[in-house]
Please model this.
Amino acid sequence: SYELTQPLSVSVALGQTASITCGGNNIGRKDVHWYQQKPGQAPTLVIYRDGNRPSGIPERFSGSNSGNTATLTISRAQAGDEADYYCQVWDSTTVVFGGGTTLTVL
Amino acid sequence: EVQLVESGGGSVQPGGSLRLSCAASRFSFSSYWMSWVRQAPGKGLEWVANIRQDGSEKYYVESVKGRFTISRDNAKNSLHLQMNSLRAEDTAVYYCAREDSGYGSEMDVWGKGTTVTVSS
Model:
């Protein structure tokens, strides 16, 4: 079965840039989606199909995908960006989520 | 505003059954794939099952095959998850989510979730 690997945690200083990676075999050949989940809330989509932002998501959120790694980048990090972030792909007829990364803004 | 509202969660003993429902509103429900995603306490997201617009295709995570059944009623804008032979490891918050287009697409709308607890 296909696996997605994310770091358990990432820290970033307020106003700096955070990068959250999602590793998978030839993930660059798949569409990668990213979700933000704050405590006690449902997930929300922040990036779809590698690097597209849904309406209402700040331009500070961007994504890229190549080779064996997809990356979610959050520029000018704010306290409100503290959350868990999950990557997601389809593998054949199965939907796969990464294990999630907790972003801490210092 | 596009909305998904889950219901039907609760506490059940191991081996028991529950039927979850998800009511969709303010979008053309019959035009979208739909998914169930769960999250065990303190854990990450786990996809459970999804269903094509007309119900002709259904897919499941291996751990629920043969125990869970996903279905939909497009006339009533509702999605369901019949859960049988429940186990302690099925304890989770269950979310329904809209898939933008199936096969590779993202989940662009989520409900707030309903909690299922399996315990003796």
Notes: Chain B touches chain A at residues 35, 37, 44-47, 50, 57, 59, 61-62, 95, 100, 103-108, 110-113 (CB under 8 Å).
